[in-house]
Amino acid sequence: MKSKLFVPGSRPELFPKALASAADALSFDLEDAVAPAVKPQARQALRALFESGACAASQKTIIVRVNAYDTPWFADDVRAIARNGVHLINLPKPDSVEQVRDAARALAAAERENGVTEPIRLLLNIETPKSLRIAHELAGADGRVAGLQLGLADLFEPLGIARERSQFVAQAMFAVRMAAAEAGVFAFDTSFADIADVDGFNAEAAFARDLGYIGKSCIHPSQIALANAAFRPSDTQIAHALRVLEAERDARERGVGAYTVDGKMVDPPFVARAEMIVASARRLGLVPADAVSSTHPESHS
Fold first, then answer.
1. Based on C-alpha coordinates, what's the Rg of the chain?
2. pLDDT of res. 284
């Protein structure tokens, strides 16, 4: 899920274009992009889309950003869009572990009501000071939580924090990444509002990639190719990772604990990183499915 394109739920004329795009995932929005007066129509438009089978045919990851748990729209959102073919519900502004658990229970009930056969998981937005402070607790609140998503607009703008200052962005990104790692879930990067600033998008995406985020949100189709390129492992990275795994397998057979690859010392943490790169390359079809794989018991930590 290198790229995720936001699509307003109230703009059904955009759905076919989004489904035909190169985005790995689509995030249909019922929250900020939809005015209160038209939220019922947006819910119905998404329900019709999901029931049409078009999303399943696209093979994209399908996400819906519902309204926050403490709003009057949350319950109706979940009942309407908990459908087969939806993979993640994006929950904005979770305020407590109890809210996450209540949201998970509401989702489970909607799945039963709608005959959903594959459980839908939760992607939690970290976009308030409190949610940033307790991000690791939110991430571990329920087994349905699949990942954390950073939301810098909601986090920074009300507090007067300058979004363009990279050191402020870096602190928030690092905190969310560590919280996700503690809970064993993925971290997904925020959107970049200045559509014309390609260099800025690329720099932020590269920083997120280097922190271990799996992808970046896109608010315009022109950003999809940038995100896809940023989060694709380079040929050099893939080749090195394959050499690490081959060397690890050889070292294990010889009973060696630490060794060198390309002049660098390698031990279990480096093997874990190599496994991640090769796994990503496999998903993208960049290496064969039977490419060398480590079976070291610590290589997935």
1. 20
2. 74
What stretches in the chain show pLDDT beneath 50?
294-301
The 10s digit of each residue's pLDDT in 253-296 is 888 777 888 888 887 878 888 887 888 788 777 877 776 654 44
Q: How far apart are alpha carbons 247 and 56 in whole angstroms?
A: 40
Q: How far is CA 108 from CA 55, 83, 203, 216, 263, in A?
A: 21, 11, 39, 28, 51
C-alpha span between 88 and 122 (Å, rounded):
5
Under a CB-based contact definition with an 8 Å cutoff, are residues 135 and 175 in contact? yes
What's the rounded Cα separation, in Å, for the pair 88 and 65?
Answer: 9
Q: CA-to-CA distance for 49 and 236, rounded, in angstroms? A: 41
CATH numbers and ranges of domains, the chain: 3-230 (3.20.20.60), 235-283 (no CATH)
Identify the bridge partners of residue 260 per DSSP, sorted by sequence position. 265
CB atoms under 10 Å from CB of 202, counted, come to 16
